[in-house]
Automatic annotation (TrEMBL):
Signal peptide: none annotated. InterPro entries: NAD(P)-bd_dom_sf, PRISE-like_Rossmann-fold. It comes from Pedobacter westerhofensis. The lineage of its organism: Bacteria, Pseudomonadati, Bacteroidota, Sphingobacteriia, Sphingobacteriales. It comes from the Bacteria. This is Nucleoside-diphosphate-sugar epimerase.
Amino acid sequence: MGNIALVVGASGITGSNLAEKLISKGWTTYGLARNPKTEIANLQPVAADLMDLDNLKSALADIAPTHIFITSWMRNATEAENIRVNGLMVRNVLEALSSKKSVQHVALVTGLKHYLGPFEAYAKEGFLPETPLREEHPRLDIENFYYAQEDEVYAAAARDHFTWSIHRPHTVIGKAVGNLMNMGTTLAVYASICKETGRPFRWPGSAAQWNGLSDMTDARILAEQLIWASTTATAQNEAFNIVNGDVFRWSWLWNQIAAYFGVDAVGYEGTIQPLETEMQNDAAVWKEIAAKYHLKEADLSKLASAWHTDLDLGRPIEVMTDMSKSRKLGFNVYQKTNDAFFDLFEQLRAEQLIP
C-alpha cells in the first residue's frame, strides 16, 4: 500500500502492540523510543530523545512516514510540568518531520483523563463527568496535559495539512516491561505473590468501582482502531473513545482473576486498601520468586505499577465509555475483557515473566 508508519513510543503497551499489528498488515514500520525494542520482527528501531529537536531531526533524517502514531508520554511532578514536557514532545516530533511533507495522518493516543481530570484532580469532586463518557463532553475547566498534546496536533495539522485522529482508551491491557500504567501485569504479579505466599488476593479499590459497571481496552483493539481511523476517510479529524465493547463489574472480574491464579479473593470490606501499600515490601519477595521459577525480570518495579492501578480502582464513580461514535462509522471490533486478561496472563507465562 506504500504506507510508512512511525510509532512514537514503540516500547510501551500501546506502541508495541500497534507496531506488531501494522507489520502484520504489511506496513513499513519504524518504532521510535529512547531505547527501542529489537525483539519485534521487521520493526525498524529508531533511537531518539523526544525532548531534543536536533536529535530527533538527525534520527529521522532518512525517514519519511506517511502516518505517525503518537503513543508516548512522560509523567512529571506537577501538571504544569506535564503540560510543558508532553506538549513539547508532540511538537518536536511533528516539527522534525514538517519539512518532508510526507505525513498524511497523525493519530494521538490519550485516555480518559480527558474526561476525569489530570493526576492532581483525577476523579475528584468538581471534576466528575456524566457517564457513560462521550466524545462530545467539553473539556474540563482545568489544565490537562492531554489537552496540550491535542492542541499541538491541531496546530501542526493546520500548518502541514495532514488529517488527524484522537484515541481515548480506558485502562489499556497488554504486555510491556517498564511501563508506567500497566494494570494487567500488575495484577498478574500481585496474584502470583499471593499464590506463593498464601496471602489473600485483596481488592484494593473503592465501593463504587467494586459494585459499579466498568469497561477496559485491550491493546490489540486499540491498535485496530488506530489503523482504522488513519485509513478511513469518514473517521478523519475526529476523536474516538476506544474500549473492548463489553461491560463488567469488578465484583465479578476480581473473582475471575483469582480463580485463574488459584488464590482466595477478598472483595470490598468497607475501606480502600491501596495496592501500593499492600505491595510496598514485596520487592524482595519477587526476587525470590523470580529466582525460584527462573523468571526473566526480578525487578518488581519494572513489572508492577501499583500506584496507577490504585488510581483506576479507587475512583468514586463507576466509569463506562460510550462507543457509538466509531461504531456508527463502521468500527465493530470486539474483545471480551476477561479473555483479554487471560490472554495476557498466558503471554506473561510463556515469556517467563510470571510463574
